[in-house]
Amino acid sequence: MFITTMNKKLVLRLPFRLGGIVGLVLLASLSAKAMAESVPLSEKQAIWLFYQRNLDLLAARYNIENAQAQEIIAGAIPNPTVSAQLLELSKNSNPNSSAQGCPQGSPSHSINCGPAQYYSFSQLIEMAGKRGLRQETSAIATQAAESDFQDAVRIFTNMVRDAYYGLLQAQKNQWLAQEIVNHYKDIISNNRLRLQAGDIPESDFLRIEVEALQAQSDLDNAAAAIEQAQAALAITLNWPDKSMQFVAEDRWPSTQDIGQNLPRDALITKALELRPDLQGDKKRAEQADKALILARKLKYPDVTVSSGYARDPSNTVLDSYFVGVSIPIPLFYQYKGEENAAAVSLSQMRIAAQQTELGVRSDVVSAFATWKSADKVVQRYQDGLLDRTRKIRDRAELAYTKGATSILDYIDAQRTYKTVMLSYFTAVTNRINAYYDLAKSLGIEPNAELSQQASNPGNIKSDRVHKIN
User: Fold this and answer.
1) Are 181 and 11 in contact, with CB atoms under 8 Å apart?
2) What whole-number distance in Å separates Cα of residue 124 and Cα of residue 327?
């Protein structure tokens, strides 16, 4: 007795000796158990799970928050300084009896006028637009961090899709293996009677049994491949609950217009405008350019303006006010080190942007060529090769059951059908992966809803996702 699930259908094989009510009860219980173990999962749900759980993607979002915090820091105005002082706290006598704050008419040797009080206020004023440059630099850094996050979404989303469609291909292979097993089981059942009647030699029957055993082995291997594909998807999704029960939807996605019919040069131009990794590197180069300007401005000193009030009882003038200006003079050090370091950083960022642009061009050319090839291969299968192969197999099977052809012809037709179908499933998987790889190389997310959700994965709402978790 064995159970397989494929295409959301349950196939049970029970010994014919099991019958009556006991068989029906066992059939119902096994069917319910198998259905409970299967968790249908769509591509969109898999990606939503990834957005919710993947730590690398969340870490990329934290870079945005850190950049935003740095932007606040860069825009801060220096705080003023307020100071208060008490002087002349000594109890010694003050011989200056003419001071306004000293008591009059007392012997000069006994005069103690009291402490002096000084209150001051100072404010640093940044010159040459340094604060504005810092704000611009930090704002550009935030934009670069946002581009990095979108690039992480672009790459990680396709990782999920690769694992998901790897699972779907494994399920398709299992379905094919089960179909072949069923065909051989029917052939063996029919030919056992023919063997007993002497219509076929025993060697032919043994050949069919060998092929049936091989088909059963292929089915076992296909079941193991499904578990491996489920594990690969689970690792990508950070292993949510019921990961080893996920079953991919039995359908290939439809392709949308992402520019795959445009000329190659037009696609390259489109990618240079949209690729977030290139935009991030360009932003960092722009940030480095602003940082160089800021480094050159450091030689212009900032001004500290101060003012205050003094009350000195022992002074001739009791109350007084003062103002002052403090300017550091860049006489010995004129910030050449900071300027040179900023210039080197700018050169590095520009080189990085140029290298990324070359990588973008290469990605588009490679992905576009792969897409065209994969699409043509699938079209070739769908334009008649699949139907012809299936008809040849069915006709060979029918002819063999009627005694009109040899067992070798039937086995050869069955093997050809198996090879073509496996190649077709691989071709379709390659085609859909090539489609999403082309979208990734262009910096495009074909599913607009996923693109919006990716900007804030913590707010993703889906009943299906909650049930899976």
Assistant:
1) no
2) 10
Query: What residue spans define the domains of the chain?
Result: 1-37, 43-77+129-299+334-468, 79-125+300-332
pTM: 0.82
Residue 59 burial (CB < 10 Å; 0-12/13-18/19+)? Answer: exposed
Tokens for 427?
Answer: 């071709």
Q: Write down the residue that tokens 């105005």 correspond to.
A: 77
**What DSSP letter does each residue of 227-279 carry, written as one string?**
HHHHHHHHHHTT--TTGGGEEE-SSPPPP--SSTTS-HHHHHHHHHHH-HHHH
- Per-residue model confidence as pLDDT tens digits over 44-99: 999 999 998 887 777 887 888 899 999 999 999 999 999 999 887 766 555 555 66
- 443 φψ region: left (φ > 0), alpha (ψ -120 to 50), beta (else): left
CATH number for the domain formed by residue range(s) 43-77+129-299+334-468: 1.20.1600.10
Chain centroid to CA 201: 61
Distances (CA, A) of 314 to 94, 97, 111, 120, 344: 7, 8, 10, 19, 60
Tens of pLDDT, residues 190-237: 888 888 888 889 999 999 999 999 999 999 999 999 999 999 999 999
Round the CA-based radius of gyration of the chain to a whole number and report it: 40
Structure tokens at 407: 């067992």
